[in-house]
Design a protein that fits this description.
The protein has 151 residues and is of the alpha+beta class. The chain has 5 helices and 6 strands; from the N terminus they run αβββββαβααα.
């Protein structure tokens, strides 16, 4: 996978035009997936040190929390465990029915891909600032770049 320029969130202040998910658009997509089975519990917005939204669903039947991350620049999403913490996202597969609801507008990234180590060719479209951050934080996998907590 060749990562697109701006994926790290580190080009937001540049003069370049980059896509941006936007809170309103994301909430519209997320709330479309609210059903008798899945209720949105919380949406945590990106901060100065995160480049993703964190969406927490509650399964109404089991009471179990389901967490997904959505990159704030590109419409990529993935599942994470509840015990994920700063710079340590534990990626998991998203349940098919929830994944299928989100996929028409968002692109699902599998656990396998996110845990895969990248090579330099995968980073050829990134900006200098992004490459410097990846090097500084010693990122090794796609997941560490796409859903990062660089500060």
């Amino acid at each position: 996978m060749k990562l697109p320029k701006g994926i790290t969130g580190f080009l937001k202040s540049s003069d370049e035009e980059l896509p941006e998910i936007g809170e309103k658009w994301l909430k519209e997509q997320i709330y479309l997936c609210t059903s008798a089975k899945y209720v949105v519990h919380e949406i945590t917005l990106p901060t100065t040190s995160t480049n993703f939204y964190k969406v927490t669903f509650v399964n109404s039947v089991t009471g179990k929390l389901i967490l997904i991350l959505v990159n704030d620049t590109y419409p990529f999403f993935a599942g994470v465990t509840e015990d994920s913490s700063w710079m340590q996202n534990n990626f998991i597969e998203v349940l098919d029915d929830l994944k299928n609801c989100l996929e028409p507008k968002l692109t699902y990234l599998s656990t396998e891909l996110l845990n895969t180590e990248f090579v330099n060719d995968n980073l050829s479209d990134l900006g200098k600032e992004e490459l410097a951050q990846i090097k500084y934080w010693k990122c090794k996998t796609f997941g560490e770049i796409i859903f990062n907590e660089f500060d």
